[in-house]
Design brief:
This protein is mainly alpha-helical. Helices cover 50% and strands 10% of the residues. Strands 1-2 form a two-stranded antiparallel sheet. It is globular and about 50 Å long.
Length: 161
């Protein structure tokens, strides 16, 4: 296992330094790391949620996480949040932005259909709702800001696309 350690005067950037500290922490705590695609990618991800935390989740938060079924767009928590926003700010005084990582396969098609259905529901109720994948967001940022922020744009493209 490679462990990266920055030294005074080294050219290690902040991201690499923090990542190296996280990997060292996992190694010291006997936590096995996997790549972003399990067997591919830089081994910087834990296999279980609990291994990724310095303190355990509160029971109710852990329950919410474990009960998630991937259909959060149609679930009652989202509806409760919308009702709360409408009550506090009025129907047209807020915008909802839904960001997600798109995938390949049948699950992606189902997810896109759910987003389209939810978009129609919000339109019918005059609620401003916009959905965008992180991939689309990063591409838009790259087109607009590559000239002035090349290093950061290159970093997020390498890390997330």
């Amino acid at each position: 296992m490679a462990i990266y350690v920055g030294t005074k005067g080294s050219n290690m950037n902040a991201h690499d330094y923090i990542l190296s500290k996280q990997i060292q922490w996992a190694y010291r705590n006997n936590i096995i790391l996997i790549g972003s695609k399990v067997n591919r990618g830089h081994k910087a991800y834990t296999q279980k949620l609990g291994d990724n935390l310095f303190e355990p989740l509160l029971p109710e938060v852990k329950g919410n996480f474990e009960e998630a079924d991937g259909e959060e767009l149609t679930g009652s928590p989202l509806i409760k949040h919308i009702l709360g926003l409408k009550e506090k700010f009025g129907k047209n005084k807020f915008r909802l932005l839904y960001l997600w990582y798109d995938t390949i396969g049948p699950e992606s098609g189902i997810h896109h259909k759910e987003i389209d259905e939810f978009t129609e529901i919000t339109k019918a109720d005059n609620i401003y709702f916009h959905a965008m994948s992180y991939q689309d967001l990063i591409i838009k940022l790259a087109k607009k800001y590559r000239e002035t922020h090349r290093d950061y744009i290159d970093y997020i493209i390498e890390r997330y696309l």
